[in-house]
Specification:
This protein has helices at 10-21, 39-51, 64-70, 89-101, 117-128, 148-159, 179-182, 195-206, 210-219, 224-232, 235-248, 253-266, 269-292, 306-314, 321-336, 341-355; strands spanning 28-32, 77-80, 136-140, 165-171, 186-189, 316-319, 356-358. By secondary structure, the protein is of the alpha/beta class. It folds into two domains: 10-191, 3-Layer(aba) Sandwich (Rossmann fold); 233-358, Four Helix Bundle (Hemerythrin (Met), subunit A) (Up-down Bundle). The structure holds zinc ion. Zinc ion (ZN) is lined by residues 52-54, 59-60, 62-63, 65-66.
Length: 363
């Protein structure tokens, strides 16, 4: 199977395999789709395929060209990504070495890295000369981070594309790019990854145990990079916060206010959304246990916390699951739309409290 290093993206893989077979590769591609779904990884693997010396299986991962691309020392590959202005060769080499190890591992360093005019000038200079081999490939990752000057300069190159040169741009925010650049590229949209695809990638590539992989896949919203970021950040701490959030539902007004103030001080918008998503997954498990008397842990996302989960459920006589799911989903969309976080969280507290009937307390 071609492009076996890419997670999911079956449709994109078919598109590129066919294009390679038929020798119909457009001179400029733009890969769009949400952050972390594998656009850049695919751009690099497609570059490899374009240089690959194998006749049938491109990229073969074995030939000299494939290896050179993998280690970023292929003379006809130009790979641009946002950097800090102060980044020197050593900084760049460090990033490239990381990507050689793991295609999905490039991280932006420092605040507001960008792609400046000098980087595009280097491309202009290089593309003025013939490639050393048959083709040249220019990969520009996070293309929307080009400065306006850089964008205009790239546009000039794309307007008169140098022969035997392929451009592959990637962008999670194509609306921030010049529309004249987009219109000169063939756009390929990358799909969100399924939870299953992320789960197995985490197990195989990050050596995570299956239970945790399933849970993290459940909150990573189709993005493998986001899932991996969860591994770096303190995932257990967030889980604890999510559980504290639920417990606070049944505390007095002041305790709720204190919780909300702490949460909005210590967590950014995304983390609050992630906390609410974890709560949603918690109730999904509670639903499975409550409704189906589920003894089989296999389907539970929080199966490592089964005791706490059972104790939690045992505390309630009744849980109006439809209302709970509605309240949490609505809150997630409110936070997304920048509606006041404190009010949103207070409203979730109230809605949850009304939807959960504690055992032994008559309403
Ligand atoms: Zn090869």
């Amino acid at each position: 199977m071609a492009f076996e290093r890419i997670i999911g993206q079956a449709r994109a893989k078919t598109v590129f395999s066919r294009a390679l077979q038929n020798h119909r590769i457009p001179h400029a591609y733009i890969f769009t789709g949400l952050y972390g779904v594998g656009k850049e990884a695919m751009a690099l693997e497609l570059a490899k395929a374009l240089f690959c010396q194998d006749i049938e299986n491109k990229p073969c991962q074995q030939c000299t060209a494939c290896r050179q691309v993998e280690h970023f020392n292929h003379p006809d590959l130009l790979y641009l990504f946002p950097t800090q202005k102060s980044a020197d060769e050593k900084d760049i080499r460090e990033i490239l070495d990381q990507v050689s190890e793991d295609l999905y591992s490039r991280k932006s360093k420092g605040a507001n890295p960008g792609i400046g005019i000098d980087q595009i000038r280097d491309i202009r200079k290089a593309t003025a000369l013939k490639p050393l081999g048959k083709n040249r490939v220019v990969v520009i990752a996070e293309a929307e981070k080009m400065t306006l000057q850089a964008s205009n300069s790239l546009l000039k190159i794309l307007e008169e594309p140098p022969p035997n040169t392929y451009f592959i741009l990637t962008s999670s925010h194509p609306s921030a790019l010049l529309s004249t650049i987009i219109s000169r590229c063939q756009q390929v949209r990358f799909a969100l990854l399924t939870d299953k695809e992320i789960e197995s990638a985490l197990i195989q590539r990050q050596n995570i145990d299956p239970e945790q992989a399933r849970l993290i896949a459940g909150i990573s919203q189709g993005s493998y990079r986001k899932a991996v970021e969860w591994l770096d950040e303190n995932f257990q701490q967030l889980r604890q916060m999510a559980l504290d959030f639920l417990r606070t539902c049944f505390k007095d007004y002041n305790t709720k206010i204190i919780f909300i103030e702490n949460a909005s001080k210590s967590m950014d918008k995304q983390t609050i959304k992630d906390m609410l998503s974890l709560n949603l997954l918690w109730f999904r498990d509670a639903f499975l246990i409550f409704e189906n008397n589920q003894q089989d842990n296999e389907f539970l996302l929080n199966s490592d916390q089964i005791e706490i989960l059972e104790k939690f459920i045992g505390a309630f006589e009744e849980i109006a699951f439809d209302k709970v799911f509605f309240a949490l989903e609505q809150a997630i969309s409110y936070v997304d739309r920048n509606i006041n976080i404190n009010l949103t969280l207070m409203s979730v507290f109230n809605q949850l409290q009304q939807s959960l009937k504690i055992r032994g307390i008559s309403s």
